[in-house]
Amino acid sequence: MRDEEGTPIDRRGSLIVTGLPGAGKSTVARRIAAAAAPAAHLDVDAVYDLVIGAVAFHPGSPTEDWALLALAREHIGVLARSFSAHGILPIVDDVIADRSVLDRYLRDLPRPIRLVHLQPSTDTVLARDARRDKRVAVKWLYLSAPMARALEGSGLSLDTTSLSEDETVATIISAWSRLSLTE
Fold it and tell me: In this structure, what CATH number is given to the domain that contains residue 115?
């Protein structure tokens, strides 16, 4: 994997891919992981789903469900550190709509930590969501403004409304050296 100058991508640290459900986080994270192999796609939803009895998370979820989500994020940090220690680039896929969640990742993930915030238009999010089995975007659109505030000035905010998957991945790879939040 090389950046726009043809320089090999620095595979140290971690990458966080965030955005609303339907923004393309999982697809982009998997595609970057394939380009940067060996890399690990660490999907917070998949770790959350490991807990038997965890409910389908929703905006009005009770405190216990929020605690399970925090636990899933804690384990993402454990996995990321373990993979990184073995030369595998961890790529975290999570909806980060609160600065405290980002701050926790900044404490827990291997450095340097890079961040990409995928921000397609609402219409694009809804259209992409309609094409998948897991249709949840409409319930989470209210997070768009809090997410933008929480992540303002952090990493790369990328409007992917008119970008294909290939163009999105190429844009992220070409901006790799400018994605770092930490050293």
Answer: 3.40.50.300
**What range does the domain containing 18 cover?**
14-178
Domain membership of residue 183 (yes or no) is no
Q: Are 151 and 157 in contact (CB under 8 A)?
A: yes
The pLDDT tens digits for 142-156 are: 999 999 999 999 999
Q: Does residue 111 sit within a domain? A: yes
104 residue type, one letter: R
Which of 179, 159, 176, 175 shows the shortest CA–CA distance to 24? 159
Please tell me whether residue 36 adopts helix, strand or coil conformation.
coil
- Return d(Cα 41, Cα 172) in angstroms, integer: 16
* Residue-wise pLDDT tens digits, 122-141: 999 999 889 888 888 888 89
Give the chain's domain count.
1
Sheet harboring 113-118: ordered strands across?
39-43, 89-93, 14-19, 113-118, 156-158
Write down the H helix ranges in the chain: 25-35, 44-48, 63-85, 99-108, 122-130, 137-140, 144-151, 165-174
